From TrEMBL:
Species: Morella rubra (Chinese bayberry)
UniProt xrefs under InterPro entries: DUF819, FAD-bd_8, FAD-bd_FR_type, Fe3_Rdtase_TM_dom, Fe_red_NAD-bd_6, FNR_nucleotide-bd, RBOH/FRE, Riboflavin_synthase-like_b-brl
Compartmental location: Membrane
PROSITE patterns: FAD_FR
Main location: membrane
PANTHER family: FERRIC REDUCTION OXIDASE 4-RELATED, NADPH OXIDASE
Key words, A-Z: Electron transport, Ion transport, Iron, Membrane, Metal-binding, Oxidoreductase, Transmembrane, Transmembrane helix, Transport
Family according to the record: Belongs to the ferric reductase (FRE) family.
This protein's name: ferric-chelate reductase (NADH)
Biological process, per Gene Ontology: monoatomic ion transport
EC number: 1.16.1.7
Transmembrane segments: 100-121, 127-147, 159-181, 193-210, 222-244, 305-325, 331-351, 363-384, 390-412, 432-451, 471-496, 508-529, 535-554, 587-606, 830-855, 875-895
Domain of life of the source: Eukaryota
């Protein structure tokens, strides 16, 4: 992080080196001349001025070959990834010969400059301001809690005098340089930029930023100064570091004298009271310092005042703030980053929802990344994998390999013999088995993010919980392989060491005794059943792996699809799995995976609270194609995007089973109703149809959701090709309804739509009737460019109209205990979710800190022993659950009260009941179309009997530079479309898959 901040500026992190072309700025950011101007532009002159030479001259236009950087300035996560990757590369470069000579900071600077000038990262981006406005001021106190001036003066001695002399020399040198080169072309900024550069040479880039902000340096001059300073200092520091590399390293008497005991010291207490206090004091210092500067009218001095404040208090109270210093590092390392991202993501998504518009001009920039999003290969175990997914998967595998290698390198250098008579290879075998568990813990750190339905992190990277389920599957399989190897390795180790260590003793004590093998085997089993009070309990890990194996075996595709109920019920063992896993690994390693589990528990409890309410089911339409449409009453404040999912539970069928279904209604067209479609396929849906086949006036249903994408991103395409098979048409129903709604506004861009749907029988054509809402009119669909190609694969001719079945509509009576489906905390209330996450996390830190300070520490001081290992883990889990319960319940009940006051009871909708199936409308003669109310939809539809769509031909013939290809249906269909889009036959196709079975 320090490498990134050290070379960023508020305007541009790595400004381009074409200084003579800097001619204008927009919002304080550098621009390059690429167009003809009507008047001469003034430029920044960075060379010595002559008295008889004008400092201004007209510029010639400079055209750039890159109109857009590879990473768009609106791609916040891409920009952050690139910046942190540059910093990581700089750290890695120190392991090379050249990198060790020039240092990581210098390598990061040079790579950043090159990336900016080559058009890889943007010169300007909104995300840069977040670093300097929030993260940098907050990090300054956390890093300076040990800045006790008295201790600094005592410990540095003559080094402090050398620093003061160097500072005075820098000031004098700056004054002399300014007199020689006054830089009059910069106007009033000439002495300001000189002062800023002087500060950077004394205290680094943070001083440069603080002085520039205080003096009000023009952003363009500020950015140019960063660029010039980085280039000149690059060569200067290369020379200094090259000289330093020739000096012999300092000898250390501790390198060989102290053995590194990772296993015994890895469980250091994570003092939670320290992080809670540290972060609170950091916020307090930042708030008080900014308030002080505003009251005193001192502009741009936030950073100097923050620095001065923390140094003063650290000097006055050295022991108290020295106690907080390690807490800042632990908090920044383990949990704070992801919690900060989750809360900040909620704020960002809230602002985005308030201005819910689609920037179609960004399509050009997004096309630069089209290659990375294109399917790269289709493989049965992994499914459809894009280039960006493969890249991130490769980086994750490299992370695991590097972690394992690093663990083993350190461990093999400091081997510990845990058993009498243990050999070196046995110790190494134990170390490998242990480190495999460490690496599996890294997988667990990411395991729960994809299954957090109301996540504020997934929408930031344009993912939904449904689309990221496959990442959860990949991580689950990988972690189970590592944990299984970890378990088997220790079982083998225990068997080997006990048999070798105890066998000789028994043979010596009982010569000729035949039960020696049995006794040594019993001892190995006793080792497996050990539950230690002050160390890792083996039994907890063995119980956890048993639950994990049960979930793993039932999650394989063949078993999951054939016995879904077994998979569903078995997967709920995750609660016991987490419980015993935390007891086994302890709090130190639990903190590494805490963010994912914490956010998942918040989401899970909010879903539980929502599911306790019964949803008001208004009506049900039974279509002839063994499909039922359920219509719920909802609050008008509930908004959702197309392709959203609703999870429902029918207690009369099963009190435990929850099933997801696609929402087909549109929140703008139908503000009081929410509809889902259920196909009669599995055992659960069979029971639902049987129950609806008998007269029923009320049906109890609980719901969770809806959950889905945060924006209608598919509308950015020029045209859409939607390919469906069977019930896979349901997500496209919501998309078409959204386009119909937007087409009513003539100023809004809507794409052309080609719907290719394949059905087995002609009765399935009734699914096309769902494209229009019950209250739909012909005028609504006539304003959009829609073409439907329907293929009936198992019939070769049109069915007779006499064979058409009737639609049956069931209207349910309202029940006082039922309520409208209200907005979900998260997708519709991001600020409330941010409040829950932040408040529950702070409560967790404070609560556990109090328990540690006033309960655990006194026991340890009284007994002179470490507090019980397992009880410490129980305190952590109890604190997390309690704080999430209190914060989530309070905010949920408050929101529920507000919705009940604002909402109105909606009576049963008057639903017209057709006399014949709308599916028959697609099979009648042309002369009868004019008398049908859905004639616009029928005219846009062409039915092909006894044929299958030639997808390769259809997709290759699509014209236009930006064609979105959406596919939903059986696996074979999705894989076929993915192969066509990845073949390179049509570069204008942008693929996206929607799946019901993973």
């Amino acid at each position: 992080m320090a490498l990134i901040i050290n070379h960023l500026s508020p305007s541009a992190p790595f400004p381009p080196l074409n200084f003579s072309s800097v001619c204008s700025r927009h919002n304080g950011l550098i621009r390059i001349c690429s167009h003809n101007s009507e008047r001469a532009k003034r430029v920044i002159s960075l060379s010595p001025l002559h008295k008889n030479r004008s400092s201004t001259r007209p510029l010639k236009p400079i055209s750039s070959g890159l109109r857009y950087p590879i990473i768009s300035q609106e791609d916040h996560w891409g920009t952050c990834t690139a910046l942190f990757a540059i910093g990581a590369f700089g750290l890695w470069s120190e392991k090379t010969k050249i990198g060790s000579m020039v240092s990581a900071a210098l390598v990061s600077t040079l790579v950043g400059l090159a990336a900016s000038n080559l058009g890889i990262i943007p010169h300007e981006a909104p995300v840069y301001s977040i670093v300097f406005e929030f993260m940098l001021p907050l990090i300054v106190p956390l890093l300076l809690f040990r800045a006790d001036l008295r201790r600094v003066i005592r410990s540095t001695g003559t080094m402090l005098l050398a620093f003061l002399l160097g500072s005075v020399a820098t000031v004098v040198g700056t004054i002399v340089a300014f007199l020689v080169m006054p830089m009059r072309s910069l106007g009033q900024d000439n002495w300001k930029i000189a002062a800023a550069l002087m500060g950077s040479y004394i205290g680094g880039s943070v001083n440069y930023i603080a002085i520039s902000e205080a003096l009000g340096v023009t952003p363009s001059v500020l950015a140019a100064g960063v660029a010039v300073d980085n280039v000149i200092c690059a060569f200067y520091f290369m020379f200094l570091f090259a000289l330093a590399s020739k000096l012999p390293p300092e000898t250390s008497t501790m390198a060989n004298g102290v053995a590194l005991d990772m296993e015994s010291n890895s469980e250091d207490n994570f003092a939670v009271l320290q992080p809670a206090t540290a972060i609170a004091i950091s916020f307090l210092i930042c708030k008080s310092s900014t308030y002080l500067t505003s009251v005193c009218g001192i502009q741009g001095c936030n950073l100097p005042v923050i620095t001065a404040t923390v140094v003063i208090v650290a000097t006055v109270f050295p022991s108290q703030f020295g106690y907080l210093a390690p807490a800042g590092k632990n908090l920044l390392l383990f949990t704070f980053p992801m919690m900060f991202v989750a809360v900040l993501g909620c704020v960002y998504l809230h602002v985005q929802n308030k201005s819910k518009t689609i920037d179609f001009k960004s399509v050009v920039g997004s096309n630069n990344l089209a290659f990375w999003k294109r399917p790269l290969f289709v493989m049965a175990p992994l499914g459809i994998v894009s280039s960006v997914e493969l890249a991130f998967a490769a980086m994750f595998v490299v992370l695991l390999i590097w972690s394992l290698s690093n663990y083993l390198f350190v461990s093999f250098g400091h081997l510990h013999m845990h058993k009498e008579g243990e050999t070196v290879w046995q110790a190494k075998f134990r170390s490998v088995s242990l480190r495999l568990g460490y690496v599996g813990n890294i997988c667990w750190a990411f395991l729960f993010f994809p299954v957090t339905r109301g996540s504020s992190i997934l929408p930031l990277v344009r993912l939904t919980s449904e689309s990221s389920i496959k990442y959860h599957i990949w991580l689950g399989h990988l972690s189970m392989v590592l944990f299984s190897a970890h378990t088997i390795g220790f079982i083998i180790y225990w068997a080997m060491t006990h048999q070798m260590a105890q066998r000789q003793g028994y043979e010596h004590a009982y010569p000729g005794f035949a039960g020696i093998e049995f006794l040594t085997g019993v001892l190995a089993i006793m080792q497996m059943l050990q539950w230690s009070d002050d160390w890792v309990p083996n039994v907890a890990g063995e119980i956890a792996i048993v639950f994990a194996l049960a979930m793993w075996v039932t999650s394989f595709p063949r078993m999951r699809r054939k016995m879904f109920e077994v998979f569903f019920y078995t997967h709920h063992l995750y609660a016991l799995y987490i419980f015993f896993y935390v007891l086994h690994v302890g709090v130190a390693y639990f903190c590494m995976i805490l963010p994912g589990i914490f956010l998942f528990l918040v989401d899970r409890f909010l879903r539980f609270l929502q599911s306790r309410q019964r949803a008001r089911l208004v009506s049900a339409r039974l279509l002839p194609c063994d499909t039922v449409e359920l219509n719920f009453s909802k609050s008008q404040g509930l908004n959702y995007c197309p392709t959203s999912m609703l999870f429902i539970n029918v207690p009369s069928l099963s009190k435990l089973q929850w099933h997801p279904f696609t929402v087909t209604s549109n929140s703008n067209m139908e503000p009081d109703k929410l509809s889902i479609v259920i196909k009669r396929e599995g055992s659960w849906s069979q029971k639902l149809f049987q129950q609806l086949s008998f007269p029923v006036d009320h049906l109890k249903v609980s719901v969770e959701g809806p959950y889905g994408p945060n924006s209608s991103h598919f509308l950015r395409h020029e045209s859409l090709v939607m390919v469906s098979g069977g019930s896979g048409i349901t997500p496209f129903v919501s998309i078409i309804r959204e386009i119909i709604c937007r087409s009513q506004n003539g100023n809004v861009h809507v794409p052309r739509v080609l719907l290719i749907c394949a059905f087995r029988n002609s009765t399935d054509l009734t699914l096309l009737d769902l494209l229009l809402p019950i209250s739909g009119t012909t005028a609504e669909i006539s304003k959009m460019q829609l073409q439907i190609e329907a293929y009936i694969t198992r019939e070769i001719g049109q069915p007779s109209t006499d064979s058409q079945k009737l639609i049956r509509t069931i209207c349910f009576k309202s029940d006082p205990s039922d309520s409208n489906i209200s907005p979900v905390i998260g997708p519709n209330n991001w600020l409330w979710l941010a409040a829950i996450i932040s408040s529950s996390f702070v409560m967790f830190l404070i609560f556990l800190g109090l328990v540690t300070r006033y309960y655990i520490y006194p026991i340890e001081q009284e007994t002179m022993q470490t507090y019980n290992f397992s009880l410490t883990s129980l305190w952590y889990m109890f604190s997390i659950i309690s704080c999430i319960f209190l914060a989530s319940s309070a905010i949920f009940l408050w929101c529920k009260k507000q919705y009940s006051l604002q909402g109105k009871q909606i009576q049963n909708l008057e639903v017209p009941t057709p006399t014949i199936s709308p599916g028959s409308w697609f099979c009648v003669a042309d002369g009868e179309l004019e008398s049908l109310p859905q004639q616009s939809l029928v005219q846009a539809t062409k039915v092909h009997f006894g044929a299958r769509p030639d997808l390769k031909k259809i997709l290759s013939e699509r014209k236009g530079s930006d064609v979105g290809v959406l596919v939903c249906g059986p696996r074979e269909l999705r894989h076929d479309v993915a192969k066509i889009c990845s073949s390179g036959l049509a570069e204008n196709l942008h693929f996206e898959s929607m799946s019901f079975n993973w």
